[in-house]
Specification:
Layout lengths: L9 E4 L7 H12 L5 E6 L4 H12 L2 E9 L5 E8 L2
Parallel strand pairs: 1-2
Antiparallel strand pairs: 2-4, 3-4
Length: 85
Amino acid sequence: MSEQPKLPAVQINTRGLRCPEPVMMLHQAIRKAKSGEIVEVLATDPSTSWDIPKFCMHLGHELLLKEENQDENSNTEYRYLVQKG
């Protein structure tokens, strides 16, 4: 039997926000989440591509997904799925 896709319990839209706000908002959401819950982060700040993986590594959370996409205006958007450890 195939594994069911993991759905986020919380979605954080940090588009348009700059460092350190996206990571601070993720930190707040993770603190409120239950162990094993997934937080989805949507961002436009390129610094999240290294800040969020470091956040996960240092605090013991699992980065399930890190992807970059182009919106209709060719702006880069970042999407992360973080599972609370």
